[in-house]
Design goal:
By secondary structure, the protein is an alpha/beta fold. The chain has helices at about 15-20, 60-75, 80-100, 100-110, 115-135, 180-190, 205-220, 230-240, 255-265, 290-300, 315-335, 350-365, 400, 420-425, 440-450, 485-490, and strands at about 25, 30, 40-45, 50-55, 145, 155-165, 170, 195-200, 225, 245-250, 270-275, 280, 310-315, 370-375, 390, 410-415, 430, 435, 455-460, 475, 475-480, 490-500. The strands form six sheets. It has a seven-stranded mixed sheet with strand order 14-15-16-13-12-18-19, with helices on both faces.
Length: about 500
C-alpha cells in the first residue's frame, strides 16, 4: 500500500471548502456551537489526521433542538400541505443529485469507504430514497368502517380512521452508511408531517451536516429538521426527553436494549434496527463461481461494516472445498488502500476502536481453533486498515460464529443435511438478513419460509431498494424501514365514530 498523505488535498473545491473550517450544528434553522463550547475532532480513518471539528452537543442543546422541533410541528409545518411536503423532498433530492460527487467525496473522507461505492451505491440509494419517500406524502390514507353497535339498535353510525404524524422524532444513526441512514430516517418522517432532531454518529457527522445545509436551502421551515452532533450524551438526552414522541435508532443491539429500557419512562414510540449475524447458505446445486462471488460480497462489502453482512457461511459438503478455495483466493486478491485510490477494493475500518474490536475477534478465531485460510491482520502504515479474513471449519461454539463482528471476517462451516443447516442458521439471537444460493426453486422457497430473518435473498445478498421493507426479527430489532411499511413508524392511527 502506498503512503497516504492528507487526503483533503484530493477533494474537489466544493468538498474542500466544506471541511476548511469548524462546523456548527443545526438548530431552528441556524448553525451554532454547543452551549458548553466543547468540540469533537473528526478524523480521516485512512490517515488518522483531523479533518475538522464539530460541536460536542449536550442535553442543553437537545432541549433547544426539541423545543424548535415542537414549535415547527405545531406551527408552520402543520400548515404545509402534503403536496408541498412532497415538492420540498423532491427539491432536496434534485439538489443532492446535483452535488452527488461532492457528497461522495465527503463520505469517503469521513467514513473511509471506496469512492466509487460512495458515489454509485450510497448516493444513488439516498437520492432514490428521497424521491420514493416524497411520493408517500400525498398517499397517507385511513379507512372507512361500517360498525354494528348492536347495543344501540335505533341509530346508525359511521367510523373511519385517520393517520396522523406521530410528532417530534428523535433519530439516532450509525457510522457505516452515514448519508443513507440520515435520509432513511429523515425522509419518511418529513413525508408523514413529523419534525426531526437527528443525532449523527460521533465518528461520521459530515454528510449529515452538509445535508442539513441543503435542507435549509431547499426551503424547509426553521426547526423542521435539527441536527445535534456529539458523543453519547445528546443521544441519551433525546431518548429521555419528555417532549420527544418517538425514537428511531439504527445501531448495535447492546445500545438498542438500553434505549428500550430508558424509553419506558416516557412510553415513547420506538423503532430499532439493530445487529445481525446473517447466514449465507450454499447448496450443492448452486453455481460455484456465482456462490463464491456472492459470499465474498456478502461479508466483505463496505469492509464488513454492514448489519446484514453474511458473516456465517454454510456450504453443503460436496461444494465446500471449492467454495473455501475460491473465497481464500478472493480474500488474498483484495487491494486494501485509500478509498480515493481507484485501485483499492477495500478501505480502512472507521476508527481505531473498531480496528481493535475486529482484531480481537481475529485473534479469538485463531485461539479457539478456527482454520485461517486467508487474510487477516493489520496493514502497515497509518490508518485503520485490515485485510479480509476467511476462517474454515468453524464450529457453533466459537465466538466468531456467534457474535457480530462488524468487520471483514468470514466464518465458514460445512453441512450435510438441509434440516441441520436450517437449525444452525436460525440458532442465533439475531434475525436481520439471510441468503440461500441454489438453482432449485423448490429448495429456494423452502428456505425462504424456514429462515427466521426479516430479509431473505435468493442468489443475492445485501440488495436494498426504497420500495422494499427492511428490518429484523428477534434481537435484530423491530419496525420496518422503507416501503409502505415505513409510514407506520411515523404516524398514529386515530379512530373516529359519529352517528349518521
Amino acid at each position: 500500500m502506498t503512503q497516504i498523505t492528507d487526503q483533503k488535498t484530493l477533494l474537489s473545491e466544493a468538498a474542500r471548502e466544506f471541511v476548511s473550517a469548524p462546523k456548527g450544528m443545526l438548530i431552528d434553522g441556524a448553525w451554532c456551537d454547543a452551549q458548553s463550547g466543547r468540540t469533537i475532532s473528526v478524523t480521516d480513518p485512512a490517515t488518522g489526521l483531523e479533518i475538522t471539528t464539530v460541536p460536542a452537543g449536550g442535553s442543553a442543546d437537545v432541549d433547544k433542538a426539541v423545543a424548535a422541533a415542537r414549535r415547527a410541528f405545531e406551527g408552520e409545518w402543520a400548515r404545509v400541505r402534503p403536496v408541498q411536503r412532497e415538492r420540498l423532498l423532491l427539491r432536496l433530492a434534485d439538489m443532492l443529485e446535483e452535488r452527488a460527487d461532492e457528497f461522495a467525496e465527503l463520505e469517503t473522507l469521513d467514513n473511509g469507504k471506496i469512492l466509487m461505492m460512495s458515489r454509485h451505491a450510497d448516493l444513488n440509494l439516498g437520492i432514490d430514497s428521497l424521491r420514493y419517500m416524497a411520493g408517500w406524502a400525498t398517499k397517507i390514507e385511513g379507512t372507512t368502517i361500517s360498525p354494528s353497535f348492536a347495543y344501540v339498535p335505533d341509530v346508525q353510525f359511521a367510523s373511519y380512521t385517520l393517520r396522523e404524524p406521530v410528532g417530534v422524532v428523535g433519530q439516532i444513526i450509525p457510522w457505516n452508511f452515514p448519508l443513507v441512514m440520515a435520509i432513511w430516517k429523515i425522509a419518511p418522517a418529513l413525508a408523514a408531517g413529523c419534525t426531526v432532531v437527528l443525532k449523527p454518529a460521533e465518528d461520521t457527522p459530515l454528510t449529515a451536516l452538509r445535508l442539513g445545509q441543503l435542507i435549509c436551502e431547499a426551503g424547509f421551515p426553521d426547526g423542521v429538521v435539527n441536527i445535534v452532533t456529539g458523543d453519547a450524551e445528546p443521544g441519551q438526552a433525546l431518548v429521555d426527553h419528555p417532549d420527544v414522541d418517538k425514537i428511531a435508532f439504527t445501531g448495535s443491539t447492546e445500545v438498542g436494549k438500553i434505549i428500550q429500557q430508558r424509553a419506558a419512562g416516557t412510553m415513547k414510540r420506538l423503532s430499532l434496527e439493530l445487529g445481525g449475524k446473517s447466514p449465507v447458505i450454499v447448496l450443492k446445486d448452486a453455481d460455484v463461481n456465482m456462490a463464491i462471488e456472492g459470499a465474498a460480497q456478502a461479508v466483505f462489502f463496505n469492509h464488513g461494516q454492514v448489519c446484514t453482512a453474511g458473516s456465517r457461511l454454510f456450504v453443503e459438503r460436496p461444494l465446500y472445498d471449492a467454495v473455501i478455495d475460491g473465497l481464500a483466493q478472493a480474500a488474498q486478491s483484495f487491494t486494501v488502500g485509500s478509498g480515493f485510490d481507484p485501485a483499492s477494493q477495500m478501505g480502512p475500518l472507521v476508527s481505531a476502536t473498531q480496528h481493535q474490536r475486529v482484531q480481537a475477534y481475529l485473534d479469538k478465531g485463531t485461539s479457539e481453533g478456527g482454520r485461517l485460510v486467508a487474510g487477516g491482520g493489520s496493514v502497515d502504515g497509518p490508518g485503520h486498515f485490515m485485510r479480509p479474513a476467511v476462517f474454515a471449519d468453524v464450529t457453533e461454539q466459537m465466538t466468531i460464529y456467534r457474535e457480530e463482528i462488524f468487520g471483514p471476517i468470514l466464518a465458514a462451516t460445512p453441512f450435510d443435511d438441509l434440516d441441520e443447516v436450517t437449525r444452525m442458521a436460525n440458532d442465533s439471537s439475531y434475525g436481520l438478513g439471510a441468503s440461500v444460493w441454489t438453482g432449485n426453486l423448490h429448495l429456494a422457497n423452502r428456505f425462504v419460509r424456514s429462515l427466521k430473518a426479516g430479509n431473505v435473498w435468493v442468489n443475492a445478498h445485501n440488495l436494498l431498494d426504497p420500495a422494499v421493507p427492511f428490518g429484523g426479527y428477534k434481537m435484530s430489532g423491530y419496525g420496518r424501514e422503507l416501503g409502505h411499511a415505513v409510514q407506520n413508524l411515523y404516524t398514529e392511527s386515530k379512530s373516529v365514530t359519529m352517528p349518521l
